[in-house]
């Protein structure tokens, strides 16, 4: 095959193959992927939900308090220490809070889909009385 010829390459052919039977394709839900201890999320961590928000919250708060500390003590290194430490702490706390909300919303959405696929029986029917 020449360089200018357009066609499938070995790499694209491998990508288009279906997975073997019994193997689930990762990436449907990020929470499942992280919970199964897959390390592929480490190479694309910026795509994880809540990453951007928690990082920006941590950096903004750390920068604000770090600048105030540097101005108060007239020592830039102390301000830098406060910036780094507070950024890490606030980012971590914000990440945990955001992920808890994300999981709660995901569970609500799954419950709504399950309810839509299997609606409860109408009131007054025999099925309702047995339950």
What is the N-to-C succession of helices and strands? HHHHH
What profile does the largest beta sheet have? Answer: none
Q: How many beta-strand runs?
A: 0
Give the CA-CA distance, first to last residue.
Answer: 67 Å
Subcellular location: Mitochondrion inner membrane
Keywords: Membrane, Mitochondrion, Mitochondrion inner membrane, Transmembrane, Transmembrane helix
GO biological process, one term: mitochondrial respiratory chain complex IV assembly
Family: Belongs to the COX20 family.
Considering the chains and any ligands shown, give keywords for the structure.
about 0% strand; single chain; about 130 residues; elongated; mitochondrion inner membrane; about 65% helix; transmembrane helix; mainly alpha; 5 helices; Cytochrome c oxidase assembly protein COX20, mitochondrial
How would the blueprint of this fold be written?
Blueprint lengths: L9 H7 L13 H6 L15 H23 L2 H42 L8 H5 L1
Helix pairs in contact: 3-4
Care to describe what's here?
- There is one protein chain.
- The protein has 131 residues and is mainly alpha-helical.
- The protein has a domain at 49-117.
- The protein is 63% helix and 0% strand.
- It has helices at 10-16, 30-35, 51-73, 76-117, 126-130.
- Helix 3 (51-73) packs antiparallel against helix 4 (76-117).
- The chain is elongated and about 75 Å long.
- It starts with 9 loop residues before the first helix and ends with a helix.
- Residues 10-14 have low confidence and may be disordered.
- Keywords: Membrane, Mitochondrion, Mitochondrion inner membrane, Transmembrane, Transmembrane helix.
- It is found in: Mitochondrion inner membrane.
- This is Cytochrome c oxidase assembly protein COX20, mitochondrial.
